Amino acid sequence: MKNILTIKNIEKYYGTKANVFKAIDNVSFSVDSGDFVGIMGPSGSGKTTLLNCISTIDSVTTGNIFINDRDITRLKSKELEKFRQNELGFIFQDFNLLDTLTAYENIALSLTIKGTKTSKVDSKIREAAQLLEIEDTLGSYPYQLSGGQQQRVAAARAIVTNPSLLLADEPTGALDSKSARLLLEKFESLNRELNATILMVTHDAYTASYADRILFIKDGKLFTELIKGQDSRKSFFNQILEVISLIGGDIDAF
Asked: Which domains does the chain have, with CATH numbers?
């Protein structure tokens, strides 16, 4: 199994010498190709900071982050920009679609930025749209789509460039339960059919139960880890609830 992501002893500090806050405290873990990993923790636990560092939105204070054996903590700004375009896909809670572009054009934007040949753009968009069952929405603008449809367009935009790592930040946070379930089922399909490697931050136990492995963060540290293995999603969900009862905070059980 190819290693995609390796986190080595990273720490992240905010503030001044007189008032220093440690958001991430000596965290290490790895993610292999085809893994579907969830990150959970209460507000202020460091999970979003961790994702921001992995996504190159933020930088670590100490430690190293390797993606495809490349230490991204050592890359300069121009190198990081190119790296994000080629290696990472992003799905945000609030979709981040451009209102003035159709769904088709929003997805195409990722390919244009990457410099994909024009002759290949249409087939790539339609392939991604078919996987996420949004073929009939490609000509629509975001305001004409439901929240669930918008998030699937955002997911198509993220996967269309075939990134090494798909990063999802509370992807179901703005969705109703039915739309959330449909999106999570699509995540499962992407993971199984395309061998997509997914790292997902969530505060919701139901959402987390779709992952194959959960890392729990508390007070900036790795608190514990759960692996689904051969367990059913229902059984895994119950295991997640047990850890939530121990970790406390504002993680949602339902």
From this structure: 35-58+79-247 (3.40.50.300)
Are 209 and 233 spatial neighbours (Cβ–Cβ below 8 Å)?
yes
pLDDT tens-digit profile of 53-99? Answer: 999 999 999 999 999 999 999 999 889 989 998 999 999 888 999 99
Strand 88-91's sheet: what is its strand order?
Answer: 88-91, 165-169, 198-201, 36-40, 213-218, 221-227
The pLDDT value given to residue 249? 62
- Token readout for 147 is 């929240």
List residues bridging with 200 in a β-sheet: 38, 168
Is the model's pLDDT at 169 over the cut of 70? yes
Cα separation of 158 and 223, whole Å?
A: 30
DSSP collapsed to 3 states, the chain: CCEEEEEEEEEEEEEECCEEEEEEEEEEEEEECCCEEEEECCCCCCHHHHHHHHCCCCCCCEEEEEECCEEHHHCCHHHHHHHHHHHEEEECCCCCCCCCCCHHHHHHHHHHHHCCCHHHHHHHHHHHHHHCCCHHHCCCCHHHCCHHHHHHHHHHHHHCCCCCEEEEECCCCCCCHHHHHHHHHHHHHHHHHCCCCEEEECCEHHHHCCCCEEEEEECCEEEEEEECCCCCHHHHHHHHHHHHHHHCCCCECC
Distance CA 170, CA 32 (A): 21
CB-based contact 153:96 (threshold 8 Å): no
The candidate with the shortest Cα–Cα distance to 60, out of 26, 108, 106, is 26
| Res. 111: pLDDT tops 70 | yes
Q: What is the pTM of this model?
A: 0.91
